Amino acid sequence: QDQLVESGGGLVQPGGSLRLSCAKSGSMFSAFDMGWYRQAPGRQRELAASITSDGSTRYADSVKGRFTISRDNAKNTGYLQMNSLKPEDTAVYYCNVRRTSRWGKTYDYWGQGTQVTVSS
């Protein structure tokens, strides 16, 4: 069973920056699409940013222009650079990777989550 290990969360003041990392065990990281989701207290989990296996990116309107998603396939690791953080970015952030094989089997893995708190 492949695993995802997240790191980089913490407490930061408004306007500050954090970089989240998501390291995947096992092989074929480059074949997976990756997404960063977040869930604030009392709210549903939402997709913040995603990157496909070929590098195409998408962002939620609320983070566009402030967050950047990237990946380093040689290191089996994905990243979420978060700049100009706001208190409303406070949430638990989850990494997800997903791919469907040529035979139709879906592989879907989640990280354990990392807390990001934006507060003065």
Please provide a written account of the structure.
The protein is mainly beta and 120 residues long. 0% of the residues lie in helices and 52% in strands. It is built from no helices and 11 strands. Strand 9 and strand 10 form a beta hairpin. The radius of gyration is 14 Å and the shape is elongated. The chain starts with a strand and ends with a strand.
The major beta sheet can be summarized as: 7 strands, mixed
Q: What's the number of helices?
A: 0
Distance between the termini: 40 Å
Class by helix and strand content? mainly beta
| Cα gyration radius (Å) | 14 Å
Tell me the β content: over 45%
Total beta strands: 11
Give the uncertain stretches in residue-range form: none
SSE order in H/E notation? Answer: EEEEEEEEEEE
Relative helix content = under 10%
> How would you sum up the global shape?
elongated
Mean pLDDT: 96
Key traits:
120 residues, mainly beta, seven-stranded mixed β-sheet, four-stranded antiparallel β-sheet, 0% helix, 52% strand, elongated
Brief account:
The chain is mainly beta and 120 residues long.
How would the blueprint of this fold be written?
Elements: E1 4-7, E2 10-12, E3 18-24, E4 33-39, E5 46-51, E6 57-59, E7 67-72, E8 77-82, E9 91-100, E10 106-110, E11 114-118
Parallel strand pairs: 2-11
Antiparallel strand pairs: 1-3, 3-8, 4-5, 4-9, 5-6, 7-8, 9-10, 9-11
